[in-house]
Design a protein that fits this description.
The complex is a heterodimer of chains A (about 120) and B (about 110). Chain A contains no helices and 11 strands. Chain A is an all-beta fold. In chain A, strands 2, 4, 5, 6, 9, 10 and 11 form a 7-stranded mixed beta sheet that branches. Chain B has about 110 residues and is an all-beta fold. Chain B is about 0% helix and about 55% strand. Chain B is built from no helices and 11 strands. In chain B, strands 2, 4, 5, 9, 10 and 11 form a 6-stranded mixed beta sheet that branches. A 5-stranded antiparallel beta sheet of chain B has the order 1-3-8-7-6, with no helix packed on it. In chain B, strand 9 and strand 10 form a beta hairpin. Classes of the chains: A mainly beta (about 120), B mainly beta (about 110). Chains A and B meet through strand 4, strand 5, strand 9 and strand 10 of A and strand 4, strand 5, strand 9 and strand 10 of B.
């Protein structure tokens, strides 16, 4: 029973390039969440998606960041024209539902993005 | 906006000692979750709490959902070296997204 999968685990980009981070939720989970963690800090919510829908993107920067969760395939967090301040660990979590005991979120191992 | 205040920020204890950490908020939440994160890894769920007053154990770990729904604590009994890591509380209302505390860094001296 595989957990949340994320790839790549490490990603190095130069300023101005694009970064694509992938997340495959746990089997049977249709809710995906993306969080960002800066060094020595806690996790900050970015976006919450269900299949083909963005439910809450209140934590996403207004520019350069986008996310999708298509009908088929993994969820993608895309960062265009990366800057050094985008360097962080990006975590994906999934849950079966968002109420009661079914809303518990399980995290992937993260993608560590380094912008040179 | 909503935020969780987690304390202490760090702890350095002797193996075998008990540990207690807590999270408080000015807002009411429906769920309290406790995670542990080790270097280079994602947060791993330790205990999930869904009802005010709920007390739940997982081995040497015990956590409680405060009766006011604004706080939670996590206790670790008889600590061992592998307990080392950063412990985060997380909480959610009805929106799905989790709000996290700043983390408690635990170091255990053998």
């Amino acid at each position: 029973n595989a957990g949340v999968m994320q790839n790549p685990r490490h990603l190095v980009r130069r300023r101005g390039q694009e970064a694509r981070l992938r997340c495959s939720p746990m089997k049977g989970h249709s809710h995906v969440y993306w969080y960002r963690q800066l060094p020595e800090e806690g996790l900050k919510f970015m976006v919450y998606l269900q299949k083909e829908n963005i439910i809450d993107e209140s934590g996403m920067p207004k520019e350069r960041f986008s996310a999708e969760f298509p009908k088929e395939g993994p969820s993608i967090l895309r960062i265009q024209q990366v800057v050094r301040g985008d360097s962080a660990a990006y975590f994906c979590a999934s849950s079966p539902r968002t109420s009661g005991s079914m809303e518990t979120q399980y995290f992937g191992p993260g993608t560590r993005l380094l912008v040179l | 906006g909503q935020q969780l205040n987690q304390s202490p920020q760090s702890m350095f204890i002797q193996e075998g000692e008990d540990v207690s950490m807590n999270c408080t908020s000015s807002s009411i939440f429906n769920t309290w979750l406790w995670y542990k994160q080790e270097p280079g890894e994602g947060p791993v769920l330790l205990i999930a709490l869904y009802k005010a007053g709920e007390l739940t154990s997982n081995g040497r770990l015990t956590a409680q959902f405060g009766i006011t729904r604004k706080d939670s604590f996590l206790n670790i009994s008889a600590s061992i070296p592998s307990d080392v890591g950063i412990y985060f509380c997380g909480s959610s209302g009805n929106t799905g997204k989790l709000i996290f505390g700043q983390g408690t860094t635990l170091q255990v001296k053998p």
